[in-house]
Amino acid sequence: MNKTADVIIIGAGIIGAATGYYLSKKRLKVYVFEKAFPCYGSTGRCIGGIRAQYAHPLSIQVMIESIKIFSTLRDELNRDVEWYQGGYLFLAHTEEKKRTYLEAIKLQKQFGLPVEFISPEECSRIVPGLNCEDLLGGSYSPYDGQANPFAVTYGYLEGIKKHRGKIFTYTEIKKINLTGEKVSSVVTDKNEEYFAPVIVNAAGPWAKKIGELVGLSLPIEPERHESLVTEACERLFDPMIVDYRPDGCYFVQNYKTGHFIGCYTPIPNDPGDHLDASSTFLTEMPRRMVRLLPKLRHLKVLRQWAGSYEMTPDGNPIVGATPIDGFYVSAGMCGHGFMFGPALGKLLADLITEGKSSISLEEFSYNRDFSRKELMK
Amino acid sequence: MKKEIIICRCEEVTEEEIVKVIKQGYTSLNEIKRILRCGMGHCQGRSCLPVIARLISKYNRKPLSEIRFPTSRPPLKPIALGILAQYHKSLDKNRNE
């Protein structure tokens, strides 16, 4: 077979799949290399939430674009990606959190996002049965939503195949060859060499290791997070609920199947790419869910699993060109890869082919100042 | 092959749907699970995954022994959120005593 492509992408999660899709739509030949199966990494382990409520202007802009894409993805990919605009409700239990949300809402409104700070009474109208103890209100946007990570990613990958691209599963990249200062080929664990003038590092939790293959030190460290899913029931409410208290949690009901799916951020954090499930989570997560919504107590937990958040120092992704000619990065998504994926894929495809994108990704560049932290991480 | 044969009873996935995906080139249980949801229901694939493994083996002439099964996830049987939440409390109580 022909071993030369226009672009080689490392990683078949949402980032690699979406970037590859928009490149192949521009008639470029795309090869995607995946060390396991598509969605093996972070994408297939996320809970599928999609929101534009952020505190960083670029994240808000990128997510407004991403939500536009999600809403048209069914027709684009000819597949039900289970996009549902059910909104997100961020709960404020402290004055400090309320101030953070009010500040963010001001910024979000500048970009045209429909978002309001609502009273506890309105919160419990949107989420009937919500425990409003200590609740000061919530930041609510009906623009946010949910989709199926598997359907979206496999849909994009099928699209790459239709545009004469190829997906190599169970194939790990062991070496990246440079010619002078420019990338020229990759070598797989099967000791085969594939050539392309452009290589995209979309390796998620393993992006740092891939960067090291070209001598690049990327500040991306995986952390373990855990999730669970319950059995299905009739629809109880629409939005994803986010409780940012130290012992809070996030969960949403799948609009189509009726399952509840949720997770929390462990304190202290749990570094490394290990993915074992813990009994602490299996008892702690239900406690947090039932505290927020007592009527969920009879629902049964079907499964729990773990996944990686690939963290950067400021909680924002690293996307764009690097000092190595032809080597691009789109990783360090900090748990937001699925929702950022479609827009970042489209923007990076423009950046690679035209040298610029409609929304500048400069503030996500790999050598930015990492001191400004995302407050709605 | 009959259209109405249900292989995954929890998620109601038919043999026809599974064979279609296998013929598209998805030949691991992990991929088929993620595309069709078979094995994601109450029984976690106890009844359907061995049958799907046989289908993969049949259509790809691959020995059954080479087909890898997805990771089994806790809990082994579904448990109510309220019970798990109480278990957390009882653990704490034991610790305090």
Outline:
The complex is a heterodimer of chains A (377) and B (97). Chain A has 377 residues and is α/β, with parallel strands linked by helices.
Description:
The complex is a heterodimer of chains A (377) and B (97). Chain A has helices at 14-25, 57-70, 73-77, 95-110, 120-126, 149-162, 207-212, 279-292, 337-354, and strands spanning 7-10, 30-33, 49-50, 88-92, 116-118, 137-141, 145-146, 166-168, 173-179, 182-188, 193-195, 198-201, 221-232, 240-243, 250-253, 259-264, 300-311, 318-321, 327-331. Chain A has 377 residues and is α/β, with parallel strands linked by helices. In chain A, a hairpin with a 5-residue loop joins strand 18 and strand 19 (327-331). The longest helix of chain A has 18 residues, at 337-354. Chain B is mostly helical. Helix content of chain B is 47%, strand content 7%. Chain B contains four helices and three strands. Chain B has a two-stranded antiparallel sheet. Chain B is elongated, with a radius of gyration of 18 Å. Chain A binds chain B through residues 36-40, 44, 150, 154, 169, 229-231, 277, 279, 282-284, 286-287, 289-291, 296-305, and chain B through 28, 30-31, 34-35, 40-42, 44, 71, 73-75, 78-82, 84-85, 87-89, 91. Strand 17 (300-311) of chain A pairs antiparallel with strand 3 (79-80) of chain B, so a sheet runs across the interface.
Summarize the topology.
The complex is a heterodimer of chains A (377) and B (97).
Chain A: E1 7-10, H1 14-25, E2 30-33, E3 49-50, H2 57-70, H3 73-77, E4 88-92, H4 95-110, E5 116-118, H5 120-126, E6 137-141, E7 145-146, H6 149-162, E8 166-168, E9 173-179, E10 182-188, E11 193-195, E12 198-201, H7 207-212, E13 221-232, E14 240-243, E15 250-253, E16 259-264, H8 279-292, E17 300-311, E18 318-321, E19 327-331, H9 337-354
Parallel strand pairs in A: 1-2, 1-12, 2-8, 4-14, 12-19
Antiparallel strand pairs in A: 3-7, 4-6, 5-6, 9-10, 10-11, 13-16, 13-17, 14-15, 15-16, 18-19
Chain B: E1 6-8, E2 13-14, H1 15-23, H2 29-36, H3 48-60, E3 79-80, H4 81-96
Antiparallel strand pairs in B: 1-2
Helix pairs in contact in B: 1-3
